[in-house]
Amino acid sequence: MVKRVGGCVALIVVAVGVGLTAGCRRDDGNPASESRATTRPHVVMISVDTLRADHLGCYGYARATSPQIDALAGQGVRFSNAFCQASWTLPSHMSMITSQYPHVHGVEANEHALPESATTLAEVLSAAGYQTGAIVSWVYLAEQYGFDQGFDRFKELLPPPHLVDSATTASFKAEQVTDHAIRWLERDHSRPYFLFVHYFDPHIDYAPPEPFDRMFDADYQGEANGSFDWIFQFIKGVHHEPGIIQPRDLAYVTSLYDGEIRYTDTHLGRLFAAIDRTLGMDNTLIVFTSDHGEELNDHGSMEGHQWTLYDEVVHVPLIVRLPGGGQAGRVVETPVELIDIPNTILSLLDIATPETFQGQSRSHLLSGPTPPGEPAIVYGEITRYNRKQYVRNARHKLIHTDDIGVNARGIPVKAGYELYDLFDDPAEQDNIYHPDLAVGRMLRFALDRRKESTVAGATGKPDEVRPSEAELERLRGLGYAD
Ligand SMILES: [Zn+2]
Q1: Rounded to 5 degrees, what angle do the CA atoms 295, 301, 303 make?
Q2: Which of 76, 77, 222, 252 can pair with 321 through a Cys bridge, CB separation 3.0 to 4.6 Å?
């Protein structure tokens, strides 16, 4: 909720980097500010669920999974070290729109919804005069979880409740999500427009339509498939003796995941063309990202996500395309967090940032060098099946696992610290943690500070939501049982 005080929006001003408008500094409810709202650019924010950064061409992947996303990166600024704050959909998206760590917004389980008292990016933009709309394609972003706060128009493209077995294959696909977004874009926008579009296709089940199902592996003849039912046998956190996926089967399943990315990318191309045709690329700020990645046996498990905090599940794409395509092709290597997105957008628009936002504007990195003292440590956490936290800078990463004895599936949990030198060991296979190591002590201090961080007014207590039995059944079908 955006609190209004005496007719004004009570907000705190933050430093302004690359401003996209000229004039006065903040929205204070007066007519001059109102009129300035009409001069601000449109904003389109896109989240493709479950999208590993390293499976995109612009992040170095060898396969042609992402020509449209790569083109966007070529026209914009690509953050090569962007990290999510939780490795599963619900808490990560809530962090993305509230600019708060999961333990601060508190939405960390199927029964948790964002309370009305929370302040979201959409609420701030709406208060600043933006017309707002969101199209979401999975239940964790639905109204019942509070994701709709601040959106004038909110479209849920969710699978029908009775289709519990086919889960994501029954979900609305990128083609339909894009069709809906294009219909909205083609309307006349008298005011600046904030549009949020969420795609779900790369999430398990990996079942891309033709020709994307065989695009990257046309020769496979085996029994493997991309369904959760088949992949479930290889999840380490579930079984005392998990199956071991054979390399040829893994290659095929990976090709299906990549096919989902390429399929989504194709429809992103339609969306980008529609943005240019309707809002105009010269007058639109585009932010492209994902809520988390996906584990494809990188650490001996086909767990999808939500179990660990290795880079395959926390390193996500982040591309910011400025109106008119300024700074085209620039790459920012400074580590950044997804909770920085709301702050950066507001800074670019010259709109004051609420004091409840924990992230930081990175707008100055879009056009200038990283200044001395720029924050370069990122943090994330999960509390669901295991309780883990991580901190990471450009070179080192510390993961802490709480001692909970056994996880929710009865599997013993190995508590303690893991430390990786990502320059020497980017795959995080060689734990070099030792309590005397200075870098480990520094990162432990940073981890503890973030783990205990809070903001004024935050309770960490979410509202309660009761998903229907059909919804719970579908979530269980994707491994999301509590
Ligand atoms: Zn997700």
Answers
A1: 55
A2: 76
Percent of the chain beyond pLDDT 90? 78
Taking the centre of ligand 1 as the mean of its atom positions, its distance from the CA of residue 422, in whole angstroms, is 25
Q: What is the CA radius of gyration of the chain?
A: 21
Predicted pLDDT at 471: 75
**In the predicted model, what is the mean pLDDT of residues 322-327?**
95
Q: Is 67 helix (H, G, I), strand (E, B) or coil?
A: helix
Residue 467 is predicted with a pLDDT of 75
Give CA 220 to chain center in angstroms: 32
CA of 438 to the centre of ligand 1 (A): 35
Give the model's pLDDT for residue 106: 95
Q: CA nearest 423: which of 391, 461, 466, 394?
A: 394
Helix (H) / strand (E) containing 42: strand 42-48
Torsion of CA 233, 236, 237, 241, to 10 degrees: 80
Q: How much is the pLDDT for 93?
A: 98
Using alpha carbons only, what angle is made at residue 76 by residues 71 and 78, rounded to the nearest 5 degrees?
90
Spell out where 324-449 has E strands.
330-332, 336-337, 378-382, 388-392, 396-401, 416-421
How crowded is residue 469: how many other Cβ atoms within 10 Å of its Cβ?
Answer: 10
pLDDT of residue 408: 82
Indicate the helix (H) or strand (E) that contains 20. none
Q: What whole-number distance in Å separates Cα of residue 260 and Cα of residue 171? A: 13
Cα–ligand 1 centroid distance for 355 (angstroms)? 27
Q: Mean pLDDT throughout 264-275?
A: 98
- Please say if the pLDDT value at position 173 is more than 50: yes
Half-sphere exposure of 321 (CA within 13 A, CB side): 25
Please identify every residue whose CB atom is under 5 Å from ligand 1, which is an ion.
Answer: 49, 89, 291
How far away, in angstroms, is 291 Cα from ligand 1 center? 5
Going from the N-terminus, what domains does the chain have, and what CATH number goes with each?
A: 39-368 (3.40.720.10)
Please report where in the chains the tokens 């380490």 appear, as a residue: 236
Helix runs in 219-369, H state only: 228-231, 247-278, 311-314, 340-348
C-alpha 37 – ligand 1 centre gap (Å): 33
CA of residue 354 to ligand 1 center, whole Å: 26
Higher-confidence position of 482 and 194? 194
* pLDDT category of residue 23 using cuts at 50, 70 and 90: very low
Q: Model confidence over 364-393: pLDDT tens digits?
A: 999 999 999 999 999 999 998 889 999 999
In angstroms, rounded to a whole number, what is the distance separating the alpha carbons of residues 343 and 377? 17
Span from the CA of 396 to the centroid of ligand 1 (angstroms): 25
Q: Contact 361/346 with Cβ under 8 angstroms? A: yes
Neighbours of 289 (CB within 10 A): 21
Q: How far is the CA of 436 from the centre of ligand 1 (A)?
A: 37
Ligand 1 centroid to residue 26 C-alpha, Å: 34
